[in-house]
Design brief:
α1 packs across α7 (about 130-140) and α10 (about 185-195) crosses α11. The chain is about 50% helix and about 10% strand. About 30% of the residues are buried. The strands form two sheets. A four-stranded parallel β-sheet has the order 1-4-5-6, with helices on both faces. The protein is of the alpha/beta class and about 240 residues long. It has two domains: about 5-155, Rossmann fold; about 170-225, Arc Repressor Mutant, subunit A. It contains twelve helices and six strands. The chain has helices spanning about 5-10, 25-30, 70-85, 90, 105, 110-120, 130-140, 150-165, 170-180, 185-195, 195-210, 215-225; strands at about 15-20, 35, 55-60, 60-65, 95-100, 120-125.
Length: about 240
């Protein structure tokens, strides 16, 4: 439950915070006007005056919810935006911050990823210190998402792995690569496959090219990372690639 401390601290940063434990209560919150924040200080985003200096801004609207209600709240905010494109909500901005209540899940990158997929602009641990909560909420209101360094690294690694497509190789090509990874020479691969050594060199070069590799070592590393070296059964008569 939100304390007076976090509400007051958020207001000092030009934010109006509401805990939406029940998504059904959210439309009422979105339709109310939070007023403006007259004490906007330098560095606080706002409307510029004639001299270009930041002026008072409408109070940013921040909705706090848990992971279970995140998607429903995100859809309600999106619906309100589409139905009221010229409202104060659109001008000031409404952001969704998900609080992770379970200590075990709060430490897992998957929980943060689930919150982002649900539509969260910010994610924080419910038990986090007040300064950390305000930092996450303030960043979300400014259009940024703050994540723990370990979570950011883990998510970055997942995204990088997902961005690399698995090379499409024939059964024969995968067989040749597995044989090479087991220590077979090109001559031995040629004998097993029924091709001449010269033709095997040509076929392997084309296989390396498909993997985006310039050498046998690089090709085997790429194949290993892509999981192409796991099957062990060699076909009796591998088809030509």
């Amino acid at each position: 439950m939100l304390t007076h401390g976090i509400t007051a601290a958020a207001h000092e940063h030009g934010m109006h915070v509401q805990r939406a434990q029940d998504p059904a209560e959210l439309p009422t919150h979105l339709n109310s006007h939070p007023g403006s924040h007259p004490d906007a200080h330098p560095g606080t985003p706002g409307t510029a005056d004639s001299a270009g200096a930041p002026g008072p801004r409408s109070t940013a609207r921040v909705v706090l919810t848990d992971l279970r209600s995140a998607r429903a709240c995100a859809l309600l905010i999106q619906r309100h935006h589409s139905q009221h494109p010229h409202s104060h909500l659109h001008q000031a901005g409404a952001v969704l911050v998900v609080l992770l209540d379970e200590p075990d899940r709060a430490a897992q990158p998957s929980a943060y990823l689930s919150a982002l997929r649900a539509g969260a602009h910010g994610i924080a641990r419910t038990a986090a210190p007040l300064a950390e909560l305000i930092a996450v909420i303030d960043a979300a209101a400014r259009g940024f998402t703050v994540l723990p360094a370990a979570v950011a690294r883990a998510l970055g690694a997942q995204l990088a792995a997902a961005a690399v497509p698995t090379p499409q190789l024939s059964t024969a090509e995968r067989t040749w690569l597995r044989q090479l990874s087991d220590g077979a020479s090109v001559s031995e691969v040629a004998v097993r496959s029924g091709y001449s050594e010269r033709e095997t060199y040509r076929l392997l070069a084309r296989t390396y090219q498909r993997l985006g590799a310039s050498s046998r070592t690089e090709a085997l590393l790429i194949a290993q990372r892509a999981g192409l070296l796991t099957a062990r059964a060699d076909p009796a008569a591998p088809e030509q690639a």
